[in-house]
């Protein structure tokens, strides 16, 4: 680190008048330091380049020196942003400059890579199995397009954690890659003569393999790879880890990417011959401000103004966003859904109604509720975003926030839901709390992920991060570990999915004991294994229950849909034997809660209510005191229980019931219709594909007649293009926007 450069950057940040000589001297120091091979030095040079670029000097010599530093840094796109922001920026570009830029520009896509991106691309071409850790806005996924186009892969899989990321990646692939059938639904008819790109969540990837076990993937990409870490202890880490394991066991090349990872399981890297590339380089630089209402009281200079910090945190937030010299949009992090909504609502008293997207307000009023606080917020340029909101509404909110017109949103309150690779236009990030949703302290990875949302490449040189609570701890390790390789307490549910040669020696005794237990009880090990990650003890207890006396008779039905009493018994049985305490949560962990959950589930299966009908049901009205908490309650019910927990456990129940029925020479049952109605809200194949793509059920029902007979996602795509005008004339303008985004 160069002290003169540090001093120069601080001087620019102070917003005091800086002489041309000072800027020139600083740039000469930067040019020299760019010879260093040390990444900290490189990052300091980029910080100086970004701060000087942001200063926007019109001096010709400063501009020329800045251009020369940009060329030497090999982040050529800084020049493009300068030209966009300052029409007087006209440095002399030498033939050597053009030659260097061409060296970093893909001949196939005309994409100009940065120096670190080029290093990653070259490393992949050499090793073919790569884990990349780098900050947000680094352009980790831009490299993937180059990898695909420079290698002759037949079948490719992109595995993304959310539908939003799937849609973004899908649209990018549609524009840039030819010769592949691209699908973001697991419903694919495989033709061995064709090449495929599958863009799926890990859950949908698992479903695809169930239907196509022999399908060979040649190259796969997993984004937000930290989600395989068993220390996350969430609902999904085992599904992510399982897909990674199954694909790594093949001969496929792969590219795994994630932000701010200090290490990635050495056991995994050694086992599968994987190279780890780590970067801390911030392409969009950050300025940090500590504005704690207890420890940092007093006057704080920010940009060309100042903020007086007092003992009231919310008033400090209002002062911060009201400071005229702080330009750009604000992303404000709060640690729980209710606080996100409540703090956004408190802003309503301060901001008047402004130009806004009236079509969006109309759509949300009709599809959710006219009393939803989000609607009042949007009218004032405010919104909130959290995991209990449907994905299509989350995406609509982000789109409005990214809108640079007068109608766009200026303030977005969110939980960590906005940190999963979603790109926003926020120049400013405010971390209001130093906690996560459980109330525990914000971990290093989560904090850096939130901070990383400040500033967007090719829009900003500098992002600002404001801490309203002091982060006292230093950066902790963010090592990603794989449960079966790195945990001394790997769960039995994980271990039974492994091939025999991958079972840790220390777990051989446990698995032998488990195998003996199954043999003694005459249970096929494949039965338990097929019910992936459903608790083993619960499955064994359920088998014991169904084997006892005439218990099977309580759950038997002939029709496609069981009668209500029979379904009640099946759901109750799943809840009693298969649900974990975590699954039940605070809403449904009592006898009354169980009764409410089963009652609402039956109502959804038998009567196909819309969201608004579910919201206005007597049960929901009594369960929560006001409209906003009811809306959160129903969103949570649909996304967590109807679409995830119930389908998983009903499949398990069906498998186990039929195993016991076969033993007893009794008739089998089929819960396929119940499962489809819960998971997708429909049993029609073309509607399931539309739901798989991310479209909400209300839109699917309207569009269904146009797509009847479609058997694959490609069929859906073709119809959506051929009947585009006809389809769009029959739906709301916002629904049309949703259709464009997901199809």
Looking at the structure, the CATH topology of the largest domain is Rossmann fold
Strand order of the largest sheet: 3-4-2-5-6-1-8
Q: Return residue spans where pLDDT drops below 50 for at least 5 consecutive residues.
A: none
The CATH class of the largest domain turns out to be: Alpha Beta
Largest sheet: 7 strands, parallel
The end-to-end span amounts to: 49 Å
Q: Kindly provide the radius of gyration, computed on alpha-carbon positions and rounded to a whole number of angstroms.
A: 28 Å
- Relative strand content: 5-15%
Q: What share of the residues lie within helices?
A: 40-55%
Shape, per Cα inertia axes:
globular
Number of strands: 17
Count of separate DSSP helical elements: 35
Question: Which key terms come to mind for this protein?
Answer:
Rossmann fold; 35 helices; 50% helix; alpha/beta; 5 domains; 17 strands
Structure explained in plain terms:
With 743 residues, the protein is α/β, with parallel strands linked by helices. It folds into five domains: 3-103; 115-278, Rossmann fold (3-Layer(aba) Sandwich), CATH 3.40.50; 285-467, Rossmann fold, CATH 3.40.50; 517-679, no CATH class; 685-742. Helix content is 50%, strand content 10%. The protein contains 35 helices and 17 strands. Helix 24 (564-577) crosses helix 29. The mean pLDDT is 94.
Quick recap:
Helices cover 50% and strands 10% of the residues. Strand 15 (426-431), helix 18 (444-451) and strand 16 (462-467) form a beta-alpha-beta unit.
């Amino acid at each position: 680190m160069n002290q003169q450069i540090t001093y120069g950057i601080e001087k620019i940040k102070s917003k005091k008048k800086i002489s041309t000589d000072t800027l020139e001297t600083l740039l000469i120091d930067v040019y020299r330091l760019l010879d260093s091979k040390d990444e900290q030095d490189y990052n300091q040079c980029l910080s100086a380049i970004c701060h000087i670029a942001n200063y926007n000097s019109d001096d010709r010599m400063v501009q020329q020196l800045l251009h020369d530093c940009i060329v030497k840094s090999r982040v050529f796109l800084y020049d493009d942003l300068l030209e966009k922001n300052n029409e007087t920026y006209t440095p002399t570009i030498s033939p050597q400059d053009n030659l260097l830029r061409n060296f970093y520009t893909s001949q196939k896509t005309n994409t100009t890579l940065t120096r670190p991106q080029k290093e990653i691309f070259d490393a992949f071409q050499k090793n073919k199995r790569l884990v990349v850790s780098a900050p947000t806005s680094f352009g980790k996924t831009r490299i993937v397009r180059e990898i695909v186009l420079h290698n002759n892969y037949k079948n490719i899989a992109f595995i993304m954690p959310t539908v939003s990321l799937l849609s973004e990646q899908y649209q990018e692939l549609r524009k840039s890659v030819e010769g592949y059938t691209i699908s973001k639904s697991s419903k694919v008819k495989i033709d061995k003569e064709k090449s495929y790109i599958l863009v799926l969540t890990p859950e949908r990837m698992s479903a695809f393999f169930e239907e196509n076990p022999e399908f060979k993937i040649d190259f796969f990409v997993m984004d937000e790879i930290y989600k395989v870490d068993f220390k996350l202890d969430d609902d999904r880490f085992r599904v992510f880890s399982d897909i990674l394991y199954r694909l790594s066991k093949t001969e496929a090349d792969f590219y795994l990417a994630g932000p701010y990872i200090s290490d990635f399981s050495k056991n995994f890297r050694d086992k599968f011959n994987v190279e780890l590339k780590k970067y801390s380089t911030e392409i969009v630089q950050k300025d940090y401000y500590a504005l704690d209402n207890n420890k940092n009281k007093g006057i704080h200079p920010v940009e060309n103004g100042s903020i007086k910090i007092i003992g009231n945190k919310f008033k400090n937030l209002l002062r911060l966003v009201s400071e005229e010299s702080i330009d750009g949009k604000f992303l404000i992090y709060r640690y729980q859904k209710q606080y996100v909504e409540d703090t956004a609502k408190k802003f309503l008293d301060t901001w008047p109604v402004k130009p806004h997207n009236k079509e969006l307000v109309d759509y949300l009023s009709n599809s959710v509720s006219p009393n939803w606080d989000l609607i009042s917020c949007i009218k004032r340029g405010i919104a909130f975003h959290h995991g209990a909101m449907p994905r299509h509404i989350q995406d609509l909110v982000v789109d409005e926030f990214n809108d640079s017109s007068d109608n766009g949103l200026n303030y977005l309150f969110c939980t960590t839901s906005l940190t999963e690779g979603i790109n926003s236009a926020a120049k400013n990030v405010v971390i209001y709390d130093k906690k996560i949703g459980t109330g525990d302290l914000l971990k290093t990875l989560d904090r850096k992920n939130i901070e990383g949302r400040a500033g967007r490449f090719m829009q900003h040189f500098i992002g600002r991060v404001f801490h309203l609570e002091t982060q006292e701890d230093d950066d902790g390790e963010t090592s990603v570990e794989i449960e079966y390789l790195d945990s001394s307490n790997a769960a039995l549910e994980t271990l039974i999915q492994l091939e025999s040669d991958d079972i840790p020696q220390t777990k051989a005794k446990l698995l032998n004991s488990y195998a003996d237990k199954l043999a003694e009880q005459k249970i096929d090990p494949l039965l338990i294994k097929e019910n992936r990650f459903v608790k083993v003890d619960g499955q064994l207890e359920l088998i014991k229950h169904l084997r006892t006396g005439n218990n099977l008779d309580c759950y038997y039905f002939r029709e496609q849909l069981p009668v209500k009493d029979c379904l009640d018994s099946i759901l109750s049985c799943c809840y009693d034997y298969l649900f974990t305490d975590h699954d039940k949560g605070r809403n449904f962990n009592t006898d009354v809660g169980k009764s409410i959950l089963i009652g609402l589930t039956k109502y959804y299966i038998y009567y196909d209510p819309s969201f608004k009908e579910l919201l206005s049901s007597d049960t929901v009205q009594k369960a929560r005191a006001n409209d906003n908490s009811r809306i959160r309650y129903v969103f949570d019910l649909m996304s967590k229980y109807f679409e995830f927990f119930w389908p998983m456990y009903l499949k398990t129940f069906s498998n186990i019931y039929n195993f016991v029925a076969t033993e007893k020479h009794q008739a089998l049952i089929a819960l396929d219709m119940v499962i489809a109605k819960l998971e997708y809200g429909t049993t029609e194949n073309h509607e399931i594909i539309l739901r798989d793509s991310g479209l909400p059920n209300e839109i699917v029902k309207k569009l269904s007649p146009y797509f009847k007979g479609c058997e694959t996602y490609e069929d859906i795509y073709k119809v959506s293009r051929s009947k585009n005008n006809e389809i769009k004339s029959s739906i709301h303008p916002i629904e049309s926007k949703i259709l464009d985004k997901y199809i």
